[in-house]
Amino acid sequence: MTAAIATEGLTKSYGSVKALDNVSLNIEPGELFGLIGPDGAGKSTLHRILATLLKPDAGKAAVLGLDVVRYYSQLRDRIGYMPERFSLYHDMTVMENLRFFASLFGVNIADSYPLIAPVFRQLSKFPDRMAGKLSGGMKQKLALSCALIHRPEILLLDEPTTGVDAVSRSEFWDMLGSLREKGITIVVSTSYMDEATRCGRIAVIDKGRVLAAGTPDALTRHMSGKLYNAVASDMFGLLTRLRKMPEITDCYTFGSTLHLITTGRFDPAGAIGYLKAEGIADARIYPATPGIEDIFIQLTRDD
Amino acid sequence: MTILRSLIRKEALHIVRDRRTMVITLVMPVVLLLLFGFAISTEVNNVRTVVVVDRHNDQTRDIIECLQVNEYFSFVGLVADSDVERLLRDGDAEAALYLRTDVGLTSAHIVVDASNPTSAQAAAAYLQGLTEGDAKKIAVTYTLYNPQMKSAYNFVPGIMGMIFILICAIMTSVSIVSEKENGTMDLLLVSPVKPTTIIIGKLVPYFLLSCIILAIMLLMAYTVLGLPVSYTVMTVAALSLLYIILSLSIGLLVSALVSDQVSALIVSAVLFMLPVIMLSGMIFPIDNMPAALQWISCAIPARWYISAMRKLMIQRLEFSHVIREFAILGAMTAALLALALGKFRSNP
Amino acid sequence: MIKDKSPYAITVCGLTKRFGSFTAVDHISFDVAQGEIFGFLGANGAGKTTAMRMLCGLSRPTSGSGMVAGYDIRTEPEAIKRHIGYMSQRFSLYEGLTAGENIKLFATVYGMTDSAIGRATDEICRRLDMADMLSTLVKEIPIGWKQKLAFAVSTIHRPGIVFLDEPTGGVDPVMRRRFWEEIYRVSSEGMTVFVTTHYLDEAEYCDRVSIMVDGRIAALDSPDALKIRYGAATMDEVFRTVARDATRNE
User: Fold this and answer.
1) Which of B47, B221, B302, C132 is least surrounded, with the fewest CB atoms within 10 Å of its CB?
2) Domain count within chain C
3) Could you report the per-residue pLDDT of A51-89, keeping only the tens digit for each?
4) Is C223 on the interface with A (CB under 8 A)?
5) What average pLDDT values come out for chain B (348 residues) when binned by 10 residues?
6) Burial classification of residue A73, based on how many CB atoms lie within 10 Å of its CB (0-12 exposed, 13-18 middle, 19 or more buried)
7) Element (H, E) at A80
């Protein structure tokens, strides 16, 4: 079985800035694949190359076994692409937008409706509202409906959840899960590290390079050094004290706790004693499970 | 075909829903035509003139009599040489005519207030005509093609030359570039629609809009402004359609060169609007320009359009007299369109 | 900087904003203590932006009252603007100017003298360790640094309170944490911080958090108290429980 998406040594520069630097990835059919990285990591550039909008400077990319540069016109019927910003016509209504994109691909809305129904259902209550007047979550659902209107085999979503609140974001990932069950290969980029767990496999990207790729579990299992949580009432004081300890290679805030990355010599009881001597009496230190964010911090700190 | 139809329908929705731009687009040509037709005039009337005469004779009396009856002048009076400067400076007189008789021959000197060069030039020319040779004969002047010397006639082609650049070039480029800015151009490009179809879908609605404006302007020119209707109307329309297509190509070219709406506006305005106003002969006659500018003006499409329109609308000449302009505009359109399409395909 | 010695940097009572028949902000009341880090959360369309614009003196309330930095939001919006700092993710710095030019521009806007500007510039360079970026165009500065610089610029006039509208959107985890360390620093110096974010782990860093739903404040307390009340392990769960019933997300 050929890979749904395969890239090899993909490189693209804008002037002196390397947006993509030797990116090689394999994405299997039916995967929900996440590109995780901050703004400027190269996620959008990779998406634009896969969507046949941009030519790479070097390297190759094949989607559904077809080279994106040579067979771009054959691919366009088979790829659904949702750009980073909300890119629909603000001065057209919900239905006008949907109908317009259906006509571009020469499809009937009725034929595609079973596929888009879970996404479009809430929108169907106000078909005549201007797209520009929709809330963030609804705009995103309309954009996804339009990207799905021609029943693509591959769905490329560039930061669909940026600027969207946590509830809508969670709903959106639920929808992606159900689309995946219908056999669509989905590549989605995000700067929210916590969303990595919703993907089957991920690639952690920074400064145009793939730092690591695999299932979220596999990546966190390979975290080097043991990870601990630390809490105290004076969190800022705790942070500055812990950073002075040589057995702690890194210490940073993580939600309501601090995460400590430690060397083999670290002893939690000893650390609590040291903190007591420093005037922090109520510190607690206990083992933590690493997340993708920990992996990212470790991978980017290594260079 | 269904794709093209829905692209055009979409563009029409944008145009119709952007009420403000729509109103400006339709009202501006009307306002400009009325403004130049009635309010702004370059004709010279009632130039206040004083006369200084050292020795009266039949000839000087004739000239003064002519001044008094001529509607271009209002005769302020006979004054002494020493008063002239004060009168001109205070604005009580705009022109002074010195008549000196020496050995039976009367010679004339003309002094005009040139703080407004246009009226000064005209006044000097009229006075010159009045004093040269037989004064009575000069009082009758024949003006061809535009017997009442209405400036409106002269301006109609110029305004049309400007409006089409404005609407076609600026609106087309801004509407394409705004799709680039919003990211919708990407969505169009990743769909199976061919770039050429996207372009045609953009051009057709603005072409139709321009046709409506052309109809409005021609209707106004031939009715409200009273341009004489003649058999050249069809040629006028054909020439204008060619010019509209040319302007659309300019808009397309601009949109391929820039990537945000502000640059599109600035490039269209500076590169295309200003030359139309300054160098096309719309306001300043090309013959009076320095040679270098005359050469540059040859590259400006509006120059050829305006010149042909004057021949057709005012002189009412036949098609054969504007073949050169047609050919030049046609060649320019083909070149611009080819360039723009090439640019758009390689760098959409 | 602060006109009176009120223990509160912000007090709001029954603040309401209507647009026609639509009530964007519906009778919200809360206080923010001096030096507090106050997280202002809410679903998209809940009315966060409208409420924040009223607090910054950019928009007049339809009804209700409020004091910010000791000034009345109804009658003294101009005084408020002089005494607060504001930073948003969408616009914070002029991309076409260098870092140094941005600092000078905003300092001048707030009426600082040349010598004070010089001192402030030196301090920013030292604290953010970016002396070598002073003559770099802002658009060429990496986003994490840019956000920290924007924050320094928005507090250059030492305001009593600073409003941060999604300051860390799209910033990588390492830089996001450094940004929060800056927030802690200004807070420990007594500055009040009013911040919105979509990263719910950041809500944990706040002293107190409010969650807006459909124009009202549906929950307001310290992160720990909220987690206990809603039986949740994280603020993410709290937020989802509170915001799930929103009807306005259309």
Assistant:
1) C132
2) 1
3) 999 999 999 999 999 999 999 989 999 999 999 888 899
4) yes
5) 87 89 87 77 72 83 80 81 84 83 77 74 74 49 50 76 85 89 86 88 92 91 80 88 93 88 84 79 77 86 89 83 92 93 73
6) exposed
7) strand A79-82
Nearest residue of A to residue C246, measured between CA atoms: A167
Task: Specify whether A187 is located in the same domain as A275.
Answer: no
Residues of chain C contacting residue A253, judged by C-beta atoms under 8 Å apart:
177, 180, 205
Query: Cβ of A83 and B13 within 8 Å?
Result: no
What is the model's pLDDT at position B35?
83
CA of residue A195 relative to chain centroid, distance: 7
Helix (H, G, I), strand (E, B) or coil at A184: coil
Residue B44 confidence (pLDDT):
64
Cβ contact B112:B120 at 8 Å: yes
pLDDT the model gives residue B208: 92
What is the pairing mode between strands A32-36 and A58-63? unpaired
Q: How confident is the model at residue A230 (pLDDT cuts 50, 70, 90)?
A: very high
* 3-class state of residue A165 by DSSP: coil
For residue A296, give the nearest of A232, A225, A211 by alpha carbon: A211
Statement to judge: residues A243 and A176 lie in one domain: no
What residues in B contact A105, CB-CB < 8 Å? 191-192
Closest CA to C207 of C197, C228, C185, C192: C192
Q: What is the pLDDT of residues C104-144, one digit of tens each?
A: 988 888 888 889 999 999 988 888 888 888 888 888 888 77
Q: Decide: A57 and A209 in contact? Cβ < 8 Å.
A: no
pLDDT value for A221: 86
CATH number for the domain that contains residue A296: 3.30.70
**pTM of this prediction?**
0.77
Does one domain contain both A146 and A9?
A: yes
A171-175, B184-188, C86-90: least confident range: C86-90
Task: Write down the pLDDT at residue C249.
Answer: 52
ipTM score for this prediction: 0.80
Q: Which residue range forms the structural domain that includes residue A287? A: 223-301
- Cα distance between residue B342 and residue A135, in whole Å: 39
Q: Tell me the C-alpha to C-alpha distance, in Å, between residue A110 and each of A98, A114, B2, C99, C113.
A: 11, 8, 17, 54, 67
Does A254 lie in the same domain as A111? no
Are A78 and A199 members of one domain? Answer: yes
Q: Is C152 a member of any domain?
A: no
- Asked if residue C163 belongs to a domain, the reply is yes
Provide the CATH number for the domain around residue C192: 3.40.50.300
The single-letter code of the amino acid at B311 is K
Check if A81 contacts B (Cβ < 8 Å): yes
CA B317 to centroid of chain Cα atoms: 19
Mean pLDDT of C193-219: 91
Q: For C15, phi and psi rounded to 5 degrees? A: -65, 125
Q: Are B225 and B33 in contact (CB under 8 A)?
A: yes
Please report, as a single letter, which amino acid is at residue B56.
H
> CA triplet C115, C121, C122: central angle to 5 degrees?
95
Q: Which residues of C touch A194 (CB under 8 A)?
A: 201, 236
CB pairs under 8 A between A and C: 102
8 A C-beta contact, residue A69 and residue A223:
no
Same domain, A159 and A69: yes
**Which positions in chain A touch C173 (Cβ < 8 Å)?**
38, 193, 293, 296-297
Give the residue among A37, A36, A39, A35 at the shortest CA–CA distance from A50: A35
- Regarding whether A158 and A55 lie in a shared domain, the answer is yes
Query: Residue C37: in which H helix or E strand, if any?
Result: strand C37-42
Which has more confidence, B32 or A8? A8
Residue C80 lies in domain: 8-91+159-171+178-243
Please state which of the ranges A235-244, B265-274, C153-162 shows the lowest mean pLDDT.
Answer: B265-274
The pLDDT value given to residue B137: 42
Q: Could you give all domains of chain B from N- to C-terminal order, each with its CATH number?
A: 2-39+150-346 (no CATH), 47-138 (3.40.190)
